[in-house]
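Trying the structure run again after the queue cleared.
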Amino acid sequence: MSPATERRILQEVGKYPKPRTALLPALKIAQQEQHYLPPETIGRVAELVGVSHASANELATFYSMLHKEPLGHTVVEVCAQLPCALRGADELLAALSRSLGVAAGETTANGAVTLKRTHECFGACHRAPMCLVNHEYRENLRGAALENLVAELRGRAAATSEFATSFEFRVQSSELDRTPAAGSEPRIQSSGSDRS
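Done. Tokens:
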């Protein structure tokens, strides 16, 4: 961990009346530097905050926003909470999995893209199915919106390496634009740029 990151963590600790309260934000600061938290980083954060290594490791293990394993340059997190599941989260996850050639929880071989299924609500149930791409909301992902997302991920992967030539990105329109079940709300195709 760099001296600059350690200084930021110590500044964060100083904001709280009880240093232990700064553990979560301190771990998030440390993660920004390496994009994940290896054991030595978790240990150093524990020392800076003044808690046991076990306490810091427990917190890093508990929160899905904290990553103890390396992730891809692009992280795609598909919300699978019940409202999103009812509006096509499983189909979205399956389409992205096929397109990327990895299962949920895996990273492409070149480290370009990590695909995750999360059970944390992102608060965008009304625009499901949705996902986060490096913390950016992508909503109403079906039809053309999903095809655009797949093309974007292909571009990101190509920029990382020759990943785009290693995997075929296929999105079958019949799987992406399903007719809503009788009595369900019509599905709107959107890129999510009109959030309200």
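Strands lie at 74-79, 106-107, 113-118, 131-133, 136-138. Worth checking whether this holds up in the mutant runs.
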